[in-house]
Design goal:
Number of helices: 3
CATH architecture of the largest domain: 4-Layer Sandwich
Shape: extended
GO molecular function: hydrolase activity
CATH class of the largest domain: Alpha Beta
CATH superfamily of the largest domain: Penicillin V Acylase, Chain A
Strand order of the largest sheet: 3-4-5
Keywords: Hydrolase
Strand content: 5-15%
CATH topology of the largest domain: Penicillin V Acylase, Chain A
Family: Belongs to the peptidase C59 family.
Protein name: Choloylglycine hydrolase/NAAA C-terminal domain-containing protein
Structural class: alpha+beta
Order of helices and strands: HEEHHEEE
Number of strands: 5
Helix content: 10-25%
Number of domains: 2
Radius of gyration: 22 Å
Distance between the termini: 53 Å
Length: 186
């Protein structure tokens, strides 16, 4: 897997060729194009007026093809602008990338009329593996809190399992950690 992005539909070679459709995406902010600008009552147009336009044209829907393209370009651009130098950096980048392709339940219409909520396509869980450290890190749909299994600590003599989800939202109550003048507000 040369591009380091996985997919399930359509086949991998199709996705590789499809990346060529987005060759115009640039890792740098756009610059003013004075050759085409016009002075108007609202000022010179067109002009760069904010940030984030370097990825204008990046697909934003939840189709497998669009998510593959987003993962490829976002990962590559992040590596160009802020190279990963540690496992922690890699975890933060992987989390951001997975958040970008997370599908909320009900956001994608079913192929046929849905009979129940389970008929809708959604992101059941997220997974990050760190093979060199034998770490398996996962989260479930309801909770964005990562859980980790250190595979080095397991005995492999019998089959074991744990539920992916504990049903919680993973929200930590931190009100008690507030100190000083803020206590008076509580």
């Amino acid at each position: 897997n040369d591009v380091r992005v996985m997919t399930n539909d359509p086949d991998y070679r199709w996705h590789l060729k499809n990346l060529n459709m987005y060759v115009g995406l640039l890792p740098n902010a756009p610059v003013e194009n004075d050759a085409f600008s016009v002075k108007t009552e609202v000022g010179q147009v067109p002009q760069v007026w904010s940030q984030g336009f370097s990825l204008l044209g990046l697909p934003g829907d939840f189709s497998p093809a669009s998510r593959f393209v987003r993962m490829f370009y976002l990962r590559r651009y992040a590596e160009v602008h802020d190279p990963v130098t540690s496992v922690d950096d890699a975890m933060v980048l992987a989390t951001g990338l997975l958040n970008n392709v997370f599908i909320p339940r009900g956001a994608v219409a079913p192929m046929q009329p849905a009979k129940s909520i389970v008929d809708y396509d959604f992101t059941n869980w997220g997974l990050i593996k760190i093979p060199a450290q034998r770490r398996f890190i996962f989260r479930d749909y309801r909770s964005m809190v990562w859980k980790e299994i250190d595979l080095k600590q397991l005995k492999w003599d019998k089959e074991r399992s744990i539920p992916v989800s504990d049903g919680s939202l993973g929200i930590e109550q931190v009100t008690g950690k507030l100190k000083g003048p803020m206590e008076e507000l509580i």
